Amino acid sequence: MSQVLKVDQVMKAYNGTVALDRVSMSVEAGSCFGLLGPNGAGKSTMMKLLTGILRHDAGSIEVLGMDVGKQAGEIRATVGYVPQDITLYEKLSARQNLKFFGEMYGVRGAELKRRISEALERVGLSERADDRVASYSGGMKRRINIAAALLHEPKLVILDEPTVGIDPQSRNHIFELLRSLQQEGVTLIYSTHYMEEVEALCDAVAIIDHGRIITQGPLEELLETHALKAVYVETDAWTEVPTLTGLQRATRDGRGWVLECERPLELMSRVADELSRNSAAVMALEMMKPSLDSVFLKLTGEKLRD
Ligand SMILES: Nc1ncnc2c1ncn2[C@@H]1O[C@H](COP(=O)(O)OP(=O)(O)OP(=O)(O)O)[C@@H](O)[C@H]1O
């Protein structure tokens, strides 16, 4: 598979404050790549470097085979970029906004009209197309913001936290749209601080914190390699966890216990035996799903902060 993005040892500082520190990452064509990290980790800075809005201080960035240092204009004309801040004209309707952005990308006439109708349909806002954007909810504005980045039919779309502060209906529309784009072969680079979004959408991920990439790779592989394997149990029978074969560490979590181990299925059956031998009440007994939450915890020693 070919690579649509190659970032090598990139540095970026703002007045001496380092925002990105020797960041390297790559994205395969056709994938949905998540850039996951807490607030202030450096995600927006990275997204702006990829589209040439900001210049990096050192290292190299290649987007669709083009050098961002030399061909930023061409990259911006080819790639779809959805900025974190909404960039729409409030007094214009959604259709008028899309006409403006489409023309900016050099699409015109009947072809532009067709693409605008299609984009409105895709984000589920055909019926509100002629209302002023000022009358839209935050989520609807975000959907139009995304539609605006698709009018030139880009093969690579870069989205900077496109679901911050939106309603569930708008989030669903955005997710459906992104899934259908990916099915059509469009590559997506998606920054977020919501790990559930990465788990739901992305097939590869880079985790960034304090301007550094902590780990990256296919999602399945990261979960397999780094995620905590554990059993969750809630019972009133234990004030202390009994000695169980295979149990590595037990920690309190709410009303229950998180039991870390190598083989959760086997441990779960031992816990069930132990509790049933004592006729104990069991409120919950389940295998914990491997999650990016626990990958982050394991690699940084902290919870992913909001
Ligand atoms: N224009 C700027 N001037 C000075 N410092 C900045 C500027 N933009 C960002 N920073 C700093 O650079 C670091 C990375 O910020 P960035 O916005 O890239 O993070 P982020 O992961 O996108 O966070 P968020 O989720 O809050 O948008 C932060 O410490 C931030 O304060």
UniProtKB/TrEMBL annotation:
GO MF annotation terms: ATP binding
InterPro entries associated with the record: AAA+_ATPase (IPR003593), ABC_transporter-like_ATP-bd (IPR003439), ABC_transporter-like_CS (IPR017871), P-loop_NTPase (IPR027417)
Keyword Nucleotide-binding recorded: yes
A family per Pfam: ABC_tran
Domain named ABC transporter: residues: 5-235
Record key words, sorted: ATP-binding, Nucleotide-binding
Protein name: ATP-binding cassette domain-containing protein
